[in-house]
Target: ABC-2 type transport system permease protein
Amino acid sequence: MKRYLFLQWTNMKQALFSLKFMIVTLLICCILFLTVLPAYTSTMDVVGLLSIGLGGTHGNLMLVLGTLPIIPFAISFATDWEQKVIHPWIIRSGMYPYATAKVITSVLSAFLATFFGLSIFELLASIGLPFHLNSYGVEPYMYFIDHDQTVLYFIFYNTHMALSSFIFAGIAFFVSTMIPNKFVTIAAPVVFYYLSHRFTSTLDIPMYTKALTIFEGVYNPGTPGESILYKFTTSIIIVAILSVLSIIQIRRRMLHA
Model:
């Protein structure tokens, strides 16, 4: 256990204190600012800008949630495989600790990159604009704004959207164990999202089980707590399944290497 914790800590340091993580976080913030620039007026507020910045009509949602956040670490297995350094790592730490630490770091670093990127955007935008003036935010998190708890609105909403990056990183990591190529890994979440969106949109299933709701929408069961719990539970289930499949695939690769 001590060896695994050391390995996990090493991976987290490598992911979170890297230049790539800082650049990706700032890029997320910059992309949002470039998107909302035409709407940046003195009558606007941060809640409204955030809704515009993450609006699907601008085409940057997958870049912000599904592409940039996976760069700091979700491509690490593909990189290790291409550089042929997996065997030394597994000899030192073991196959299961290596695989588990990789996938956990991948999804957590993607989650944090998105969360911090959105938070920095909101803080910088608030320098010249109020957090909320008259814009209508996202239900059910508008409950917090209606009760003068704007900070909680941003915390819940940022967490909700960052959980999408959490899932995308799980998808990317799994694909990297199937096809250990960095470029394929980076492209995988976008391809998976559009395919799953087209498929589930044709099915007669509850809205909260469709890809559109899971990845970019906000399901409103009635309260903010229920909404974030639904997103968290869905994210954990999807990533847990992908993690198990990733570990099995890594084991299979090592047995036949």
